[in-house]
Amino acid sequence: MASWDTPTAVISHYTGLSPAAFFTILALMLVTYKLVCGMFVAQDDSAAVKRVNEFVRRDPVQMGDITEDELRSYDGSDPSKPLLMAIKGHIYDVSRSRMFYGPGGPYAMFAGRDASRALALMSFDPKDLTGNIQGLTSSELEALQEWEYKFMEKYVKVGQIVSNDTTTSEPKVTPATEGGATDEGN
Question: How many CB atoms lie within 10 A of CB 157?
Answer without folding.
Answer: 21
